[in-house]
Amino acid sequence: MNMPTEEKQKRRVLIADDDPVSRCMLASFLAKWGYEVIAVGDGLEALRILQGPDAPRLAVLDWVMPGLEGPQVCQRMRAHPDLPYVYVLLLTARNEKTDLLRGLEFGVDDYLTKPFDSRELRGRLQVGQRILNLQESLVEAQEELRFRATHDLLTGISNRGAVLEALNREYSRQKREGGSFGIILLDLDHFKYVNDTRGHLCGDAVLREASHRIAEGIRPYDTAGRYGGEEFLIVAPASDESGTMALAERIRISIESLPVEAEGGPATITASSGLAVSRGDSPLEPQILIHLADDALYRAKDKGRNRCEIASQPDVILTPPR
Ligand SMILES: [Mg+2]
Q1: 55 C-alpha to center of ligand 1: Å?
Q2: Range of the domain at 114
Q3: pLDDT confidence of residue 184
Q4: If you measure from the C-alpha of residue 60 to the centroid of ligand 1, how many angstroms do you get, rounded to a whole number?
Q5: Is residue 166 scored above 60 in pLDDT?
């Protein structure tokens, strides 16, 4: 039967028990219930598998084992919250309440006292799977929210907040480590005309396609975002004047190269860009940099559009406008 990887992983169980008889019995029950079983005899091996690639998401751990005991395996795993959640069922011969509570403090989800009732074990594993499913939908919902909070929904690229954050991050990095970086403020030419003559659907198609070409044109470590209306901001780490200009030109050419396919026929678009560079020897604050790029953009528009202009380095470091 073909199952998606995620489903498969949830049907896989790790059993860790140093008692071979108990281990075999567990393995045969679980196999009968349709689980794919990985069985090991000590805690260190269990931890290695649970922290490895494609780890099972369900684990049945014996309490007392050589290497690491069940609760310690769990504790070490929980110290890495970035790894996918593993639901842990602890098997124990101990039935002292205080001991069990201690087990739960190590991050164990549930426990079962040996000798266990197979129906109870089956039921508890099903609870584990339900919890895993819930946890997964929660993670998906969080990712969706995070995406919505940082991306522009029309174009799918970073939004203004996210690209400004990238700029601030790059500025802090520069203050610590030096080096130059550039920014590009790009504005689509005559966009209002497109909207007015071809309608907003065409305008949206143009924005989406321009975003796409910008995203394709940047390097993996650059950040591009929609700054406002038809304006985009690109943050280009590790770039001097010529590097930033080369990047801006590449994007400008890709935008003018092909008309955008839109309802009612192709629409030709071009863009103008203003560039500014913060040099390692004289870093410029983000607000000043944007201000300089904006001036350069204005010049590019003034000189006939579909071109890139770079700001000259200011003689004095201005204080950011309030
Ligand atoms: Mg044992």
Answers
A1: 22
A2: 11-148
A3: 98
A4: 12
A5: yes
Considering the domain architecture, whether residues 50 and 71 belong to the same structural domain is answered as: yes
Residue 17 Cα to ligand 1 middle (Å) = 6
Residue 44 has pLDDT above 70, yes or no: yes
Q: In what side-by-side order are the strands of the sheet with 231-236?
A: 223-228, 231-236, 181-188, 271-278, 308-310
Domain count, the chain: 2
Question: How far, in Å, from the CA of 64 to the mean position of ligand 1?
Answer: 4
What is the pLDDT, as a whole number, of residue 4? 55
CATH assignment of the domain containing 98: 3.40.50.2300
Rounded average pLDDT over 250-271: 93
Among 148, 169, 199, identify where a domain stops: 148
Q: What's the CA-to-centroid distance between 297 and ligand 1, angstroms?
A: 71
In sequence order, the β-bridge partners of residue 13 are 37, 58
The last residue of one of the domains, among 119, 148, 177, is 148
Is 230 among the residues known to form the active site?
Answer: yes
For residue 223, pLDDT beyond 60: yes
User: Is residue 220 over pLDDT 70?
Assistant: yes
Instruction: Tell me: do 254 and 304 sit in the same domain.
Output: yes
Burial class (CB in 10 A: 0-12, 13-18, 19+), 56: buried
Name the active-site residue from 230, 231, 256, 309.
Answer: 230
Residue 1 lies in a domain: no
Query: Is 153 within a domain?
Result: no
Among the listed residues 167, 196, 207, the one whose alpha carbon sits nearest the alpha carbon of residue 183? 167
**Is residue 226 a contact partner of residue 232, using CB atoms and an 8 Å limit?**
yes
Does position 319 have pLDDT exceeding 60, yes or no?
no
Kindly report the CATH number assigned to the domain that includes residue 220. Answer: 3.30.70.270
Do residues 171 and 260 both lie within one domain?
yes
Q: Kindly tell me if the per-residue pLDDT of 82 is higher than 90.
A: no
164 and 305 within one domain: yes
CA distance readout (Å), 230 to 186, 193, 194, 225: 8, 12, 11, 11
Is this structure's pTM higher than 0.85? no
CA of residue 69 to ligand 1 center, whole Å:
8
